[in-house]
Amino acid sequence: MLTRRYRKQERHAQILLELKLKPHVRVAELAKQFGVTTETVRRDFEELGRSGLLQKAHGGASAQHPGAPSDLDERRHQRVAERERLGRFAASTVKDGTSIMIDAGATTMEFARILAFRETQIIAITNSLQVAMILGQNPKADVRLAPGEYLPREAAVIGLETCEYLAGYNVDACFLGATGISDVGVTEAVKGFASVKRAMIRQSRRCNFLIDASKFGQTHLTHVAKFDEIDTLISDKRPAADFTKKLEENSVQILVPNS
């Protein structure tokens, strides 16, 4: 049986379509799919990369979301498997008709991607350009992007205008990332992010943090939340026993996918 021969333009279109459905594509898999050599696929990646349409990664390529800054983009390629698990699990807790707030970050982008892929019917309010663009691919999502001071390296808005906008809504839940969680609570390193997270917490009936285990025990400059302000911690591993006890004493539900 003859393999269909893809022209270059068709290969490029198919590669970009694949990257809308998943965060990473592999050279070997595409070469087999197109019936071409791996070198041909690598040249396709080179051309698409020069056009800013994707970013080459080890053994393949990842989507280059429009406006993605280097700081955020670097984080997107760290602990990929863990963030995929957290995003998929968190998205499974969101039912049709739910109203949510989502803040900016690599993990919340993965959460948004799964919601978009599943076409979950939601009202979503965010300060993240990336999250808004990802959810915008979901025809069943009502997406609202907050105004504010733009942080290019994080593709997000912050500031008083952002917080005032968020104060105009009351939602079922917020889904937030953070750069650290320790005995002092949840903390943040990125300028302006803590205020936005706190604003989202105030306007949400339930507060969910998506924090991978690499951030356990880390304390950063700006305080975000005390333990008694958190309803659910979703992570790839359970914290150490003493830390788990402290969270549970404050009624924090700890959820670990496949646990």
Q: Explain this structure to me?
A:
The chain has 259 residues and is an alpha/beta fold. It has helices at residues 8-21, 27-34, 38-50, 70-76, 80-92, 106-118, 129-135, 160-166, 193-202, 241-249; strands spanning 24-26, 54-57, 60-63, 98-102, 122-126, 141-145, 149-151, 156-158, 171-176, 180-182, 185-188, 204-210, 222-225, 232-234, 253-255. Strand 7 (149-151) and strand 8 form a beta hairpin.
Task: Tell me what portion of residues adopts beta-strand conformation.
Answer: 15-25%
> Helix and strand string, N-terminal first?
HEHHEEHHEHEHEEEHEEEHEEEHE
Distance between the termini: 45 Å
- Detail the poorly predicted runs: 66-70
Name the strands of the widest sheet in spatial order: 6-5-4-9-12-14-15
Overall residue-averaged pLDDT value: 89
Please identify the structural class as seen in this structure.
Answer: alpha/beta
Helix run count: 10
**What coarse outline follows from CA principal-axis ratios?**
globular
Main sheet summary: 7 strands, parallel
Give the strand tally: 15
The Rg value, from CA coordinates, equals 19 Å
- Helix fraction by DSSP (H/I, runs of at least 4): 25-40%
Q: Summed up, what is this model?
A:
Helix content is 39%, strand content 24%.
List keywords for this structure.
259 residues, 7-stranded parallel beta sheet, globular, alpha/beta, 15 strands, 3-stranded antiparallel beta sheet, 39% helix, 10 helices
